[in-house]
Amino acid sequence: MILRFKKCHTILALVVVCCMYSAKAQLTDLARLEYSFIPNNKSEDQYTRLRALFNYPIETSKDCYLVLGAEYNRVILNLEDNYPFDTSLLETINIIDVSIGYTFKSSTKWRLGLKFNPRIASTLTERLTSDDFFLNGGVFAINDRTKDESAKKPYRLVLGLTYNSTTGLPIPLPFISYYRRVNEKWSFNAGVPKSNIKYFFNEKNMLQTFVTLDGYFAHIQRPQQVNGKQVDNISLSLAVGGLGYEYCFTKHLVAYMYTGYTFRLNNALRNEDRGEVFKLNDVNTFYLRTGLKFKI
């Protein structure tokens, strides 16, 4: 019983501190390996992303956790069309995150969390400069009553505000997540940046419909002149909807695949002030994301 109680609080700790946009990940992930693919509908151009992450919670005192994490994204741009610039300088984009989170109980029902997330986002063709570094973070509050037998309608509510300047949307972003397991077969999660409706064939096989946001923002270490203007940064922002499938090998090890179609896509080269200089792609297209995760 004591072990189960401590495990529940560890899950809550990870839920709070892993709520950043890059949580494109499930909130309770300890480790994840992932592959994403987006083709260009009008050419042979392709976007590929390889992703790896881990989170490690440390209990500092009763109901208080320090969570250390790291994440690496390698974005591969296969630009096969003829462009008015040297595409070889944009072939790979590296995004390296280190995260430090802290969460604690503020009352019997609410838990608060803070997250500090320094990042390198760059083509890494030269030595690192200050333009390659970004400081991101967030504050969160969670009310989890999914295990509360006294609640008429058990739920989990997470509210937060994050700033992530490398997502392709360099403005403060709200994080809102409302989860409910309706019955044995259905659950839903409504919020930003992700919402879904999930159907459980059983506890090992799950199918879902989803809508989510994705993207990146990175510095180009070798600025180029494009149509008479200098480009210093590259960004991708997209919104996608589709179907997802999850298979649980064990309670903690899960394989997944999400496929869908974008309904907003903007891949662009930008100047020092982040103004758009050259649009690489804005045509909606197919989306695939698959991987393996280890969760609490």
TrEMBL record:
It comes from the Bacteria. InterPro entries: DUF6268. Residues 1-25 form the signal peptide. This is DUF6268 family outer membrane beta-barrel protein. Residues 89-294 form the DUF6268 domain. It comes from Winogradskyella poriferorum. Keywords: Signal.
